[in-house]
């Protein structure tokens, strides 16, 4: 059999043409210890802080401790399949999550993977979960109100777009309800909402999602959840994943509201990770950088300058207190980072004052400048009235004979407390809030029985919709209070038709 030289040369030429000389270099290390969701690896000398690393079984890890001889890795998934001697390689990527419109209406975990059973998420963009907060010159002052629809908040502790307002209180005092009502009230307000549930029972999160769906709020909301049964790293990452998703919209000129429910559980998860990584513990066994954990998260909330599109990201972080102790470590840390706090008191909650907002301890440091003029006018003296009422109330328990001025103050105070009560998932538009607060401050409710006040408010709102829609439209469109004569005429006209409960 003769060999054709031409055939051989053709084959050799083909082989040379198809030869790919690219050399792939990858940093590979070896797992030296593993346990409790933490692994230590040797040989990853060039790993970056926060870099994603891949174990030989496909599970991902996050580089945390960069030590001289080894790297401490937080395992993002089941760690039972990883053993000593396994190979681990660098990916060269910092932890990222998918972002964009495709996430709206979905429930995802902190890695951006859908967990609502509705198939994959159609989005091509992603963002790193850690990002630099906007600098001083990239921001502008808060000047636009974020209407929560909750009278006690919009009147006493207003929130502006781009603000960070802490919601603090014991467990079971209605913190989540405040957040859910605020999200429901953003319908038709050109606002995207992100609800981050940290360490909650899955049944609780499911209930919240169903509530949002029932009120049509899920269409503009992303729910990020790290459940109570999830490993600590996911609880630690959840808020950062939520804010990264929000930043995508903010830098595109949109307005975003992010709710972190709650940061106490994130701090506890971070403490667990830090102790397992053998970092030195500090006060209450928290690591020394627990302040930085929350400050670098909350500083990313901002109202951007017009040059950057004028978008905003408003943060509502939650912190749970133990027996109302707001001087504990995590509460004081977060209070010092935020622009004010809304304190929910269990005593008020159990006595039927809901939302249970303590006006004396609650404050908004910037929201007042974003309040509409009409609300500023009618709610100006409300906080002082409420504070003096609480003081008088405790004194009046000791004496029976009170002078007329004191009696009048107590009567007004009781009616103020009643007006600020609000039903579950019933946010109120700002123009109707202005009307009832005007009626209260001008004394129209002083001769009504306290138990009639909420019915009076409800019936007045219906009457105004039918008989004086132009008055409501004027407050809504201009943000200013109409003439006193118009306001008084409307309230008096309705009051003539109102039937008080017969004794």
TrEMBL record:
Stretches assigned to the ATPase F1/V1/A1 complex alpha/beta subunit nucleotide-binding domain: 149-364
**Residues under site feature: Required for activity:** 362
Localisation: Cell membrane; Membrane
Gene3D superfamilies, sorted = 2.40.30.20, ATP synthase alpha/beta chain, C-terminal domain (1.20.150.20), P-loop containing nucleotide triphosphate hydrolases (3.40.50.300)
Q: Which UniProt keywords apply?
A: ATP synthesis, ATP-binding, Cell membrane, CF(1), Hydrogen ion transport, Ion transport, Membrane, Nucleotide-binding, Translocase, Transport
The principal location of this protein is: membrane
Q: Which reaction does it catalyse?
A: ATP + H2O + 4 H(+)(in) = ADP + phosphate + 5 H(+)(out)
Its domain of life reads: Bacteria
Q: List the EC numbers from the record.
A: 7.1.2.2
Q: Which residues form the ATPase F1/V1/A1 complex alpha/beta subunit N-terminal domain?
A: 25-92
Q: Which GO terms describe its molecular function?
A: ADP binding; ATP binding; proton-transporting ATP synthase activity, rotational mechanism
**UniProt: ATP binding residues:** 169-176
A GO cellular component term found in this entry reads:
proton-transporting ATP synthase complex
| ATP synthase alpha subunit C-terminal domain mapped to chain residues | 371-493
Q: How does it sit in the membrane?
A: Peripheral membrane protein
Cite the PANTHER family for this sequence: ATP SYNTHASE SUBUNIT ALPHA, MITOCHONDRIAL
Q: What does this protein do?
A: Produces ATP from ADP in the presence of a proton gradient across the membrane. The alpha chain is a regulatory subunit.
Family, according to the entry, reads as follows:
Belongs to the ATPase alpha/beta chains family.
**Any idea what this protein is called?**
ATP synthase subunit alpha
């Amino acid at each position: 059999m003769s060999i054709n030289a031409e055939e051989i040369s053709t084959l050799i030429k083909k082989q040379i043409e198809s030869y790919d000389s690219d050399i792939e270099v990858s940093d590979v290390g070896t797992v030296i210890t593993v346990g409790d969701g933490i692994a230590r690896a040797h040989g990853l000398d060039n790993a970056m802080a926060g870099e994603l690393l891949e174990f030989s079984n496909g599970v991902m890890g996050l580089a945390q401790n960069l030590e001289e001889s080894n790297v401490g890795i937080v395992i993002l998934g089941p760690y039972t399949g990883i053993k000593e001697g396994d190979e681990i390689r660098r990916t060269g990527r910092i932890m990222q999550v998918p972002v964009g419109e495709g996430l709206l209406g979905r429930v995802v975990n902190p890695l951006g993977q859908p967990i609502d059973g509705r198939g994959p998420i159609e989005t091509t963009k992603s963002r790193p979960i850690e990002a630099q907060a906007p600098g001083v010159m990239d921001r502008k002052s808060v000047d636009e109100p974020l209407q929560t629809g909750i009278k006690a908040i919009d009147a006493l502790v207003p929130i502006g777009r781009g603000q960070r307002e802490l919601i603090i209180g014991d467990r079971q005092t209605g913190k989540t309800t405040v957040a859910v009502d605020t999200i429901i009230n953003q319908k038709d307000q050109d606002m995207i909402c992100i609800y981050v549930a940290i360490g909650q029972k899955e049944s609780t999160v499911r209930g919240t999602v169903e509530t949002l769906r029932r009120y049509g709020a899920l269409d503009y909301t992303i729910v990020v959840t790290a459940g109570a049964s999830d490993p600590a790293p996911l609880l630690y990452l959840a808020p950062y994943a939520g804010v990264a998703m929000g930043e995508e919209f903010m830098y595109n000129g949109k307005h975003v509201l992010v709710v972190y429910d709650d940061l106490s559980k994130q701090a506890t998860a971070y403490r667990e990770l830090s102790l397992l990584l053998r970092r030195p513990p500090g006060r209450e066994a928290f690591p020394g950088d627990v302040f930085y954990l929350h400050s670098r998260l909350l500083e990313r909330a901002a109202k951007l300058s017009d040059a950057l599109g004028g978008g905003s990201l408003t943060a509502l972080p939650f912190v749970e207190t133990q027996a109302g102790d707001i001087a504990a470590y995590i509460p004081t840390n977060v209070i010092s980072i935020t622009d004010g706090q809304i304190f929910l008191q269990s005593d008020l909650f159990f006595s039927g004052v809901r939302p249970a907002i303590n006006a004396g301890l609650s404050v908004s440091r910037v929201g007042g400048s974003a309040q509409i003029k009409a609300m500023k006018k009618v709610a100006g003296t409300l906080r002082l009235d409420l504070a003096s009422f609480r003081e008088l109330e405790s004194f009046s328990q000791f004496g029976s004979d009170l002078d007329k001025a004191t009696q009048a103050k107590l009567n007004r105070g009781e009616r103020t407390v009643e007006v600020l009560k609000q039903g579950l998932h019933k946010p109120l538009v700002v123009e109707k809030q202005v009307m009832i607060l005007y009626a209260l401050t001008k004394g129209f409710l002083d001769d009504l029985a306290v138990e009639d006040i909420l019915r009076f408010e409800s019936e007045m709102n219906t009457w105004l919709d039918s008989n004086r829609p132009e008055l409501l439209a004027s407050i809504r469109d201009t943000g200013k209070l109409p003439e006193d004569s118009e306001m008084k005429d409307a309230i008096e006209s309705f009051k003539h038709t109102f039937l008080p409960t017969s004794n």
